[in-house]
Queue: 4 jobs
Job 1
Amino acid sequence: QVQLVESGGGLVQPGGSLRLSCAASGFTFSSYAMSWYRQAPGKERELVAAITGAGGSTNYADSVKGRFTISRDNAKNTVYLQMNSLKPEDTAVYYCNGGPRYYWGQGTQVTVSS
């Protein structure tokens, strides 16, 4: 069955960095675009970044441009989100999304606080 398993979240100080990973299984990973979303308390889930199947094209929310980088390793069936210069407003649960039916992972908590 399809599984998307996120990891790499945690508590980090403002200005710090984290790298999230999403390991996929159960579908032909390289054939599908993958995305990262986030949901902060009391807010709607929002798209953070997306990458095409071959990794040749990416797009980002304006709020993270220049700070976050999405990438993928199709040999490892994994998509990454490198997050630099983190701000308190980046605090949220981060979700991986993709596959033939736009599956969701379980989410990983990112907290940016001093």
Job 2
Amino acid sequence: QVQLQESGPGLVKPSQTLSLACTVSGGSLTTTLSSWNWIRQSPGKGLEWIGVIHDDGATFYNPSFESRSSMSMATHQNQFSLHLNSVTPEDTAVYYCVAGTGWSDWGQGTQVTVAS
């Protein structure tokens, strides 16, 4: 079981870029066949999968987010990141980093509010 911890700004202005990082402990981002996800939950909505980055750096995104999102790894820090461009108040949510294709391990989540 790995531990994940999200970090990032709690408040972002509309049209700006939201950048979040997830620090992983108890496991390595480059473990063969490992995968690392970003998922969010908006008020009154269910979980939304944003995207995944695999151990080899390959990324795949939910089509709803693909045009304005990117994910990357910093293997020396055992961190992976999410950048979401052109945010609107509808991007207000709790953002989670999640390990594995089965979403086996979750960070505690970080609240992000988009407001001017």
Job 3
Amino acid sequence: EVRLVESGGGLVQSGGSLRLSCVASGFNFSTYEMSWHRRVPGRGFERVSTMNSDGDSPAYAASVKGRFTISRDNAKNILYLQMNNLKPEDTAKYYCFKTPGSRGQGIQVTVSE
């Protein structure tokens, strides 16, 4: 059974930082592209960042480029998202996605003014 469990979210002030983690199990993590998405209530998913199986060529949404960094540890089956200089508009529920197929339950990130 594929499992993706996010952690590291919370409440932070504008300009602060958080690091999200996604622990993966139930599949061969090192062979899959992984990504982070976020969703605000009433809106669809926004793809935040993607990383291929080898950890090369990260891609970012324009809204987070230069502030967020995606990484992965294939030995530990963990995907990370380092989020710096957070802004109130980054407030959302963040999800770890396996491509194709699965996503985690999500973790709330709230950025106050």
Job 4
Amino acid sequence: QVQLVESGGGLVQPGGSLRLSCAASGFTFSSYWMYWVRQAPGKGLEWVASINTGGDNTYYTDSVKGRFTISRDDAKGTLFMQMNSLKPEDTAVYYCNVGLRGMDFWGKGTLGNVSS
């Protein structure tokens, strides 16, 4: 079955960095666009970034442009997001997401906490 397992979250000071990973299995990873979505405390889901098949096109929400970088390793079936210059407002649970067979699949998420 489809599985998405996020890791790499933690506590970091403002201005710091985190690198998130999402290990995917149960589907042909290289054939699908992949997404990062976050949920801040007490708020709804927010799309953060997308990457196409092949990884040559990436898209970001305005608030993270120039600070976050989404990437993928199709050989390893893994999605990444490098997050630099982190701000307190980036504090959220970060989920990777894929849509296939008419359904949305999600991991359990990883918490990125930006605080001094």
